[in-house]
Design goal:
single chain; 394 residues; alpha/beta; Rossmann fold; 7-stranded mixed beta sheet
């Protein structure tokens, strides 16, 4: 079966919650071996168009990392801080159960923590959010144990592997830039917009690697210190919504407006909060030498073209933030297990080699990284994919 990557998705579904009136969306961009993968997000203002863009991006991620699965995405237009949010998520998953049972492998995303979506799946009798893939295993109970062991493996810092692997991948994309440009890590600075699961994980691993994280931004504003922030302390001071308790921030750290992070003097800018964070209106504020998209669709096409014209490359989301998706399938396929070192080594090698490829084309011919990445995706997608029955999950 050939994988077709078209702008038009395979499926769009719209759901209305009869209790709250909230709308939810499922977009399946492509199916490979009858499966598609992509998280479920919840935020006030989520639209079908947004979910469609994200599903297309997921298809690109799976192709980039040569995963035997298509791309999909779920989204719910509802405030995740509303006390009714979990029940809304449960009703959405119940409505989407035919797809979740047989075709759609989902996971956490903006506004939906992994433990919450797993609780909802357990209530529905589906065990875990990777259910559609796990049920194909010759021994589903064994596969479920392997998945749960990997997700819940402890890592330094008191967190779990499943919570940090995406941020670790983003950090490796940043470190791949330093390697491609022959920069000393300790002389490289980074600003991170968003300090939740993805941004916080990236900041942690960059700090651990010796890179100076000079700015982080949450909903309350930007924290800036040119000498480098104490990232472990700031992460410990986050609340359940990823906002840093300002009473725990040292007095010498500058408090700036939330959008100030975009214009921070830093080698690398990592937008890790919301989609469309970089637009034509603020692209000229960017003072970084490279942008690493940790958030999905963090840069509008117009802003990316404007940045490229100024000599600032953008490492696209479907490469830089694909670590969690790739790792989940490596875990499902038994290529990694519960030992975090194995997962870190595999993701580091895969991510840094891809970033080197993208920046190599940029350095020599000024080919935008997204163009090079899409050429790779297209080459993979036009090749013959495995037959429907060929996907084996141990």
């Amino acid at each position: 079966m050939a994988i077709q990557h078209a702008d038009e998705p395979l499926l769009r579904l719209t759901w209305t919650d009869r209790v709250t009136g909230a709308h939810g969306y499922l977009v399946v961009h492509s199916l490979v071996s009858g499966l598609a993968t992509g998280g479920t997000r919840m935020r006030a203002g989520c639209t079908m168009s947004e979910v469609e863009d994200l599903a297309r991006g997921m298809a690109a991620k799976t192709a980039t990392f040569d995963l035997p699965v298509g791309g999909a995405k779920g989204g719910i237009d509802f405030d995740p801080k509303d006390p009714r949010a979990t029940e809304v998520l449960r009703r959405f998953c119940e409505a989407m159960r035919p797809w979740l049972d047989a075709h759609w492998v989902t996971a956490e995303d903006l506004g939906v923590p992994q433990h919450i979506i797993d609780e909802v799946f357990a209530e529905l009798g589906l065990e875990q959010s990777y259910h559609a893939a796990i049920r194909r295993s010759a021994d589903p109970a064994r596969t479920l144990r392997r998945v749960q062991a990997g997700l819940n493996a402890p890592v330094p810092g008191g967190l779990l592997l499943g919570d940090v692997i995406g941020g670790y991948g983003v950090a490796q994309a940043c470190l791949g830039v330093t390697a491609a440009w022959n920069r000393a890590i300790e002389e490289t600075t980074v600003a991170v917009q968003g300090i939740g699961t993805m941004g916080g994980g990236a900041a942690w691993y960059l700090h651990e690697a010796g890179m100076r994280v000079v700015a982080v931004a949450d909903a309350a504003g930007t924290l800036y210190d040119p000498a480098g922030l104490d990232i472990p302390t700031l992460l410990q001071a986050r609340d359940a919504y990823g906002e840093i308790d300002r009473s725990a921030v040292p007095d010498h750290v500058q408090r700036l407006p939330r959008q100030a992070v975009v214009g921070t003097e830093a080698t690398i800018l990592v937008p890790a909060a919301i989609s469309y964070a970089l637009t034509p209106d603020n692209s000229y504020d960017v003072r970084a030498e490279v942008v690493i998209e940790a958030a999905n669709a963090a840069t509008t096409p117009e802003a990316e073209a404007m940045l490229a014209a100024r000599g600032v490359p953008v490492i696209p989301d479907f490469v830089a933030n694909a670590g969690a998706a790739a790792w989940a399938w490596w875990l499902l396929l038994g290529q990694v297990g519960a030992e975090p070192t194995d997962s870190f080594l595999k993701l580091r090698g895969e991510m840094q080699s891809k970033v080197a490829l993208l920046l190599g084309a940029w350095n020599t011919d000024r080919v935008p990284p997204r163009q090079t990445a899409w050429e790779f995706v297209t080459a993979r997608e036009v090749a013959a994919a495995p037959a429907e029955s060929a996907l084996t999950i141990p």
